[in-house]
Amino acid sequence: MATKKEEKQFEKERKAAIKAREKRMKEEGLEKFLTPDQIKYNKRQKAIGAVWPVFRFLILFGLCFVILYPLIFMLSTAFRPNEQMNDPSIIWIPKNFTMQNIKDTWKVMKFDKTLINTIILNLVSSVLQVVTCSITGYGFARFKFKGKNILFGLVVMMIIVPPQITTIPMYMQYAHFKPQFLAKMLTLGKTSLINSGWTMYLPALFANGIRAGLFIFIFRQFFRGLPKELEDAAYLDGCSPLYTYVKIMIPNARQSFLTVFLFSIVWYWNDYYVSSSFFTNNDTVALMLKNLNTTLAKTLFNNQSVSVRQIIVWLEAGCLLSITPILVMYVFLQRYFVEGIEKSGLAN
Question: Which of 17-26, 69-78, 273-282, 322-331 has the weakest average pLDDT?
Answer without folding.
Answer: 17-26
